[in-house]
Amino acid sequence: MENGAEMEAVGGGCDGARAAVLVAGLRRGFASGRTRSYEWRAAQLKGIARMIDDKEAEIMAALHDDLAKPHMESYLHEISLAKAACTFALKEMKRWMKPKKVPTSITTFPSSAEIVSEPLGVVLVISAWNYPFLLSIDPVIGAIAAGNAVALKPSEVAPATSSLFATILPNYTDNSCVKVVEGSTPETTALLEQKWDKIFYTGSGKVGRIVMTAAAKHLTPVALELGGKCPVLVDSNVNVIVATKRIAVGKWGCNNGQACIAPDYILTTKSFAPTLVDAMKRTLEKFYGKDPLESSDLSRIVNANHFRRLTSLLDDEKVSGTIVYGGQQDEKRLKIAPTLLLDVPHDSLIMKEEIFGPLLPIITFNEVEDCMDFINSKAKPLAAYLFTKDKKLEELFVKTVSAGGMLINDTALHLANPHLPFGGVGESGIGAYHGKFSFDSFSHKKAVLSRGFSGEAPARYPPYTPQKQKILRGLINGSIIALLLAILGWPRD
Amino acid sequence: MGKGFDGARAADVVAELRETFRSGRTRSLQWRAAQLKAIARMIDENEADITAALYNDLAKPPTESILHEIALAKEACLFALKKLKRWMKPRKVSTSITTFPSSAKIVPEPFGVVLVISAWNFPFLLSIDPVIGAIAAGNTVVLKPSEVATATSSFIAKNLPHYVDNSCIRVVEGSIPEASALLEQKWDKIFYTGSARVGRIVMAAAVKHLTPLVLELGGKCPVLVDSNVDIKVAAKRIVVGKWGCNSGQACIAPDYIITTKAFAPKLVDALKITLEKFYGKDPLGSADLSRIVNSSHFTRLKNLLDEDKVSGTIVHGGQQDEKHLKIAPTLLLDVPSDASIMKEEIFGPLLPIITVDDLEHSFDVINSKPKPLAAYLFTKDHKLEKKFVKTVSAGGMLINDAILQFTNPHLPFGGVGESGMGSYHGRFSFDAFSHKKAVLSRCFLGEIPMRYPPYTPLKQKVLRGLIAGNVLPLLHALVVWPAHKKV
């Protein structure tokens, strides 16, 4: 049976041939027209919402398996956000699907014009390991809401969550149009060789380039949600206790710093740094106790590779010498304590690469403006943060610093607002999603202009004459008189 | 900027424009408006020269030059000038209870330094139109006009610098070596108009720097003609959309017609009559038809006609004048589906008509081909219209006319699938060259202690309630909690 053959494609050993079979199956599913109706899309989203409700415990267990993610974070950052995405899409989808009427110009009078959203067709979602549940289901929700057939490739670096998807998603969604493919580089490569109508990738800039290269072959549009070094500029004019709490929870309370929008490094003035460092130390002890390696409220480092990557950032003497708090490590359990570093050299590796872990360098300048220059000297990040009560500084920051998104006086939260586009710029990515932006990301906005057979303007037809040209120019300039003349049939042939 | 423009010089240009962009000069409404006004003035003051250049490059009839290139370019300037302030304004959006109190907005900002690569068929418009969008959005921009339209490229290179701010807007002339040198640089956006083949090259180059793109490509734009039409009007609109648009050398020109076997004879007759009315008995002598742009395209089109099984299907036209690079409007009836003329984008004055038994079958024919930039339907039947819009995917669609969708600045103009990615015109031009930055702003109030470690079941419970939109937990969080817990 067809479905049986296609089910085999799901799982390890998905090579080029199997990937082609998978895509062909999805294309048939899409061509059947079943994904176009509001009812089908709503049924899938309701199915996903039900899956999240039914399997909450399993999801949390998988996330704990993969990342030692605290249940609070699993709930707050993955489960509740995924559920909210379903609910929001269900609530708004009818409105999103409706064609949008737009004004028509005098040149096409009489006519009506509208923009019709249509699905792109068969799309591929490649997810990441750090929020392996959310970053899989969130784009899939957008793809489905927009009426596409979709293949999801969860990250193999989070195997428990990947496995969970492969097991449960097919039980809650229409398998002819929604498929999960597990695997690692070979399987991903096989998938990327196929022709997709859109590819949505979350991950690193390095692999983002591989995805875009593959997409270029078929002129496939892409959304790339990448990363960067998210700076936190801390002014002296702040409530420093609240500021440090919000920074800490955005850094270590977000998968122990392994988040694309986690604060990567802090910038502040030389004069304020001591106050800030002190407040951060106190907050960290309050949150995680005197022995943070034992705290159950911190995710572990995802695997040995990343553990080594992070510890080697500290190998440089000029860097390890700047540790002012933390630094404890437990290789066996893949744990690194929240670590603060003060005034690391700007050319050290820890200041050049995205950290993606529990190390937080603080660098200082004489003036706040110098801090902004420093931010702008680096690649554009996915998020930039500023803590200040000074409205003028806030305005300057928004005006001068370019980033995917910005948050003033808090961290990470902007991703929870479905009315804000979530995406990068420059090295941090292409495209955006969340809320309606998800729907738009997976839609083609088709312009439709409709006329009747009246409103003939003989002036537009050859043979061209100066009089005809005159009338047409008037028409293009929006002249009503020209319009009248045109439709009254001037000039007479 | 011409011969000898290599990678080093390209890098210099980009570095200069980056420096200027960093200076902030392109950010103000005043600067942007000044550039747009200058471009509008350039168009007004040089209409004769632009028309002459277009005639040089394409033998484009002055009426088409004025209508399709000059007037539309001017309109784009004026529309942007009128709307720019509104487009630049940040857009406030709703906030959720979870971030109370807060304010949220979307701020458009320029990408930075952008590259516009233009095409040869509407060489003035397709250069200036994207540049207008780039400037309106506050970018610095390099324009590379098509070398295939040499007179227009030369006109732009000589004149644009006299009107606009050269520290921010540059023209680089040249062909493949110069384009390659440019594509090696790091751009913040690339806007390309042309063929799918070169579109792939541009996208592959953009990968290196993760540069976002707009690709305005082509495709075979089908025209579906029902029997339930005003056939005279339909024929006129099809003819002017095809041959009145640079002799069919337009990305949205009707490429082929599909109609029923029963209706084909009537349609062919009506087209023949219209063609004669428009271009006379000797169309090769008509001043109202562009020529074929160059001999390489002439040969390409000639070969499409010379193919076995194709030349026999010519029912009108077919005359050629190689010396003057002219091909007469040519109709072909029932060409085989595997002929090259039915597989490649024609981009010329040849119009195949293929027939089906039932018009509903035509949707399958259209959908079996790559998605085109435009699809057209002529019918009075609203049900058929609805089905067409629902079933056929294309960049844009027009019912009962051809090409006019291009002129409406409220409609996005762009392709899908093989016909392109991204769109522009009007506000969509501004958006194409802008990054929409999300900005959420809070103050130091509205602390929710439950979000902080150490995590407890009680904290989780309160947050769940909060997220579920219950106001009580919010009140509890804001008022009661701080009173009895010091976290």
UniProtKB/TrEMBL annotation, chain A:
Biological process per Gene Ontology, one example term: aldehyde metabolic process
Domain Aldehyde dehydrogenase: 27-448
Keyword NAD among record annotations: yes
Domain of life: Eukaryota
Annotated GO MF terms: aldehyde dehydrogenase (NAD+) activity
InterPro entries xref list: Ald_DH/histidinol_DH, Ald_DH_C, Ald_DH_N, Aldehyde_DH_dom, Aldehyde_DH_NAD(P)
Pfam families: Aldedh
Catalytic function, reaction form: an aldehyde + NAD(+) + H2O = a carboxylate + NADH + 2 H(+)
Protein name, as recorded: Aldehyde dehydrogenase
Species annotation: Ensete ventricosum (Abyssinian banana)
TrEMBL record, chain B:
GO biological process, one term: response to abscisic acid
InterPro entries: Ald_DH/histidinol_DH (IPR016161), Ald_DH_C (IPR016163), Ald_DH_N (IPR016162), Aldehyde_DH_dom (IPR015590), Aldehyde_DH_NAD(P) (IPR012394)
The family this protein is said to belong to: Belongs to the aldehyde dehydrogenase family.
Residue intervals of the Aldehyde dehydrogenase domain: 10-439
Reactions catalysed: an aldehyde + NAD(+) + H2O = a carboxylate + NADH + 2 H(+)
Pfam families referenced in this protein's UniProt entry, alphabetically: Aldedh
Keywords: NAD, Oxidoreductase
Domain of life of the source: Eukaryota
Single GO molecular function: aldehyde dehydrogenase (NAD+) activity
Listed GO CC annotations: cytoplasm
Protein name (Swiss-Prot/TrEMBL): Aldehyde dehydrogenase
SUPFAM superfamilies per UniProt: ALDH-like
